[in-house]
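In keeping with the milestone schedule agreed at the kick-off meeting, the structural modelling team has produced records for the first pair of proteins. Each record is given below as a sequence line and a structure-token line. The laboratory manager (R.T.) confirmed that both were archived under the project's standard naming scheme.
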Amino acid sequence: MKKKEKIVIFEEYLEELYPDARCELNYTKDYELLLAVVLSAQTTDKRVNLVTEVLFRQYPTLLSLASTDIDTVSKILMPIGTFRKKAQFVIEIAKRLVEEQEGKIPNDPEYLVSLPGVGRKTANVVLSNLFDYPAIAVDTHVERVSKRLAFSKKDASVLEVENNLQKAYDRKNWSRRHHQMVLFGRYHCKAIHPECASCKIKDICSYK
């Protein structure tokens, strides 16, 4: 089967499974999403939501976060691992947004990746959610699914996976497909014990 046909079949399956796909991180303010995505590195969204509920309640503004100390924030973030480094990121990001952006998140990928703890994936997630910016953020789930379906080679870099998916999908659907692929990888095509038996696209998957 040609790659283009596989892509169409996969898109149809994603629409069936996740017609209302969205980011599973909880936030009520733009900067809260940015901080939550930074905190989500190497941990689960569920665990991040538990700590941000405490963090954002105790520090309800960017200014309050920028003014606090790393030890206090570290204690709140302890359940998510590498908590001290992440606490430093949170405080430094808050300070820069207050000092340089009047507390607002700019629609500017170059600025975002200049912030501590913010890489291309984080910037893409934030921009696509806040500004409907067309982007495919490649996290571990998206990368795994893409390679198992042979949309990218097994040794492809994250950037190569992103470029391949951008070529595969219509630009207007990039953000939607990102969210759907994240959920598919998180709940179906898992790293360990994937739900292959019940998967409707197992015939076009290279995973064994």
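The second protein of the pair:
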Amino acid sequence: MTLHIYNTATRKKEEFVPADPECISLYVCGPTVYSFPHIGNARPAVVFDVLYRLLMQEYGQVLYVRNITDVDDKINAAALKEKVPIAEISARYTRAYHQNMADLGVLAPVIEPKVTDHMEAIIDMIRRLVAAGHAYEAEGHVLFHVPSYSGYGELSGRNLRELIAGARVDVAPYKRDDTDFVLWKPSDESQPAWDSPWGAGRPGWHIECSTMIEQHLGKTIDIHGGGQDLVFPHHENERAQSTCVHDGQLFSRYWMHNGFVNVDHEKMSKSLGNVLLVQDLLGEAPGEAIRLTLLATHYRSPLDWTDEALKQSCRNLDRLYEVLQNLQDIEVSVSAADVPDEFLGALKDDLNTPAAIAELHRLAKQAKTASGQNARETLKRQLLAAGRMLGILQQDPAVWFRGTSEIDEAEILRLVELRASAKKEKDFKRADEIREQLTTMGVQIQDRPDGTSSWRKV
């Protein structure tokens, strides 16, 4: 089966045909680093991490670029509030983002450009847009003239009248048209500024991504990804700028957008007090469980985050790791060829992670009852290879079951050995008492058919 993805630009599922199968180009809008990442920030990172893994599986070479926006009014506000430079704010929350995403098993992109490293290129692209008649200077601002691009609105499916009526369109007296948007804006003394032909200022949000894409991926890319909230105005404006600055050349062959994250059936927002920070969730559950919860719903659908959904992911991973624990007597090395066709087919069908997860559980069920050495070995390789594609089952089962909280492992091992001795001496009452003691410590004993026992933290 060939890879098919839903293209936001055409509003249909299409076969993926890259410009160059030898090197796939993928760009995903990364974080604006002014606060700790929340679960809404984590969803695109995890979703497109799975896509990245799939593209590497299918094509081998993938140039994956995910940016860091380190110039933004929200960063400015945070810096003013704390009375520190913006670089301190952006560096702090970039570190937090990297750590949180690593905890969720998200691979690092090949290139991670920062806006502040691209100011000369940003100014150059704006200059070219002005020279081509697609942008103009007005009262210290440089604006993109939307009516100069006839294809504006095609990505989001909005017409110009709807855009003018939209709350996110900034109406200002210096605009030639109400839909025109900012490429460069002046800075006051409290705001960061760079010298430009139009005076000291800073870039608008949209031009930043257009410039970084041109610098690192070229004029046309294979896939542009991000959250659904970015379709308009961010990606619509990116598309307009990049298409116009390159004389009408196609900007992105495919556009992919993940759905919103709701919390207990409500939109996540600061006003409702239901913003879930990744670092807080990591205190409640392992990163793999958070990741699995994010992948349990198809990426294009809204995801309703609940405590029960997270607990269910923990239980599902327990079952999968238990199967791997029962296969620990088998040593295997895993390769790309071990990914099962049915599992891979689910991912190649527009990244259908729920179907892929269901296939993973089917494999686990087979492995649980398999008896022949060859069958057990094959199924273990398939489980591990499929898990790697989803970014789960990356731990030793013993580590998974013992958890990450502080435990007195030496004491647990002592009690396990005492219990084994009691069973050997047929002192089953004493053995049961030790089991109960371990249970109160949050430890579960699992007796194997060969008479040995293992333990796990629950």
